[in-house]
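Note to self: keep these together.
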Amino acid sequence: MVLMAIDFSLGISWQFGVLAVASMLIFPFFKGRYAFVLAALGYSLVDVVPAIFGAPTIGLWTLTGALTWGLVGLLFTLQKPNGSPLTFAKLGIAGTLVFDAITGPILSPLLWGMSFEEALLGQIPFTAKHLFGITAVSVLAAPFVFPSVKKFLSRINSAALKPQISAG
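Structure:
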């Protein structure tokens, strides 16, 4: 009898899950260029921190992933932060589609030498799992954390935040 492992990851690693939720919660409060830089830096840390402890996690994918996640952070700044589960689901789905489209079928042939067709077909179940995971997290967790994030960010006076947010 073969036992199959149950995957409770909802399609996202815990590092990327934390990054995705933090991005949805925080970046709508930021001005675009700051969200881009912070998103790219945050994504880079997902690879850099394990590398500090000897894991071979840094490569060209770190740069391409960071730039792509920066684009997602910029995309998130277009949304007015309101805390609704629908808003978080929209952000999560849009961010997942943008990130997976760029890093999957577009960049995989360049980074890994596979054909576009292989990359596209391989990306479909991967992205479907990501969409399920990020939608679940968007609806179940993000709205409960949002009020605390909004309260915290409204106390900060920074040029990086949108004026209506930093004013309180």
